[in-house]
Amino acid sequence: MASAPEPSSLTTLISNTGSHPISALTTQILHDLRYQHLWTSLQIHTPSKDSPSTGEQQQQHYSTPLISGIPPHRIYTHPDEQLYMLESGLRDEDILPERVFVLPTAQDQSWSLQKMAAVFDYLPDTEERPSLSGGDDEVNGSTKAVAAHLAEYYKQTDKARATKEWGGKRILLAMANRGMGGDGTIVYYIIQEGIVKPRQN
Questions:
Q1: How far apart are alpha carbons 10 and 102 in whole angstroms?
Q2: Residue range(s) defining the domain that contains residue 123
Q3: 52 closest CA partner among 124, 104, 137, 136
Q4: How many structural domains is the chain composed of?
Q5: Does residue 35 lie in a domain region?
């Protein structure tokens, strides 16, 4: 008689994290980010009752933890930011990826604007700045000239964040197919706070 197959590393990990469905979902998405997409410095952020969200409905909803981490490459570049980079002679490879927040969700989970606003309220106003450490002649594989452009770029980034010129806060919505017959596929969507102004070609 054949023995049962060994459980996968993900199944073993989920079974050791707790019985709550949200814990299992968060663990599944964290595992996917770490091993499938090669993110580093992953953390789970559990909202407290002292978070900025107000109202009983938001507090009930906002027990969903967030995941944050650093992807191997940048996830999104605003079109105006891209134009600034081109004018400054900067490439995507010159700019280090920043910490990105991820909201774990299941495919049939319902969301409202109020719930999503509570998530954005929880996000920090400023993002971790990647360090520009390196030798005298080289900064992250770039020349001194590029390093000077990077310093200007980060100044412009701070200004653009304050005015939301390059868009407001962003989050990655991770949606797992976990329903009846779901295969566990995870799809990621970029969600931006506020209204995005249509662009003219």
A1: 19
A2: 20-192
A3: 124
A4: 1
A5: yes
Is residue 14 included in any domain, yes or no?
no
Alpha-carbon torsion (67, 71, 77, 81), positive or negative: positive
Q: pLDDT in tens for each of the 201 residues of the chain? A: 677 777 666 666 666 666 555 778 888 899 999 999 999 999 999 876 555 544 444 444 456 789 999 999 988 888 888 888 888 888 888 888 889 999 999 888 888 888 888 888 888 876 666 555 544 444 444 477 778 888 888 888 888 888 887 878 899 999 998 766 667 789 999 998 877 666 665
What counts of helices (H) and strands (E) characterise the chain? 6, 5
| 127 assigned to some structural domain | yes
By C-alpha distance, which of 95, 122, 104 is closest to 178?
Answer: 104
In 38-185, the DSSP E strands lie at 40-45, 66-70, 100-106, 170-176
Rounded Cα–Cα distance for residues 7 and 143 (Å): 49
Q: Could you tell me if residue 201 is inside a domain?
A: no
Tokens for 117, please give them: 């606003």
